[in-house]
Amino acid sequence: MPNVATGSNNPKLKATGKQGQYKGIAFFSREGKWLADLTINMPDGSYDKVTIEIEQVLPAKI
User: Fold this and answer.
1) Alpha-carbon distance 29 to 47, whole Å?
2) How do strand 47-57 and strand 22-23 relate by DSSP bridges?
3) Domain spans of the chain?
4) Which residues, at least 6 apart from 56, have a Cβ–Cβ distance to it below 8 Å?
5) What is the pTM of this model?
């Protein structure tokens, strides 16, 4: 949620076997619009940051 600090969510990502593609599961504590700030740590110790805008997170169906 862009206007609410929600703390850290540190999903573990795994390589898919395709160059530059990874997958994992992140948990969202509320529905709505989110900004996901990601830090990518490279094997050489460098890193890159990216922000992904998520338009709508829907509640889980139980």
Assistant:
1) 27
2) unpaired
3) 14-57
4) 31, 32, 33
5) 0.61
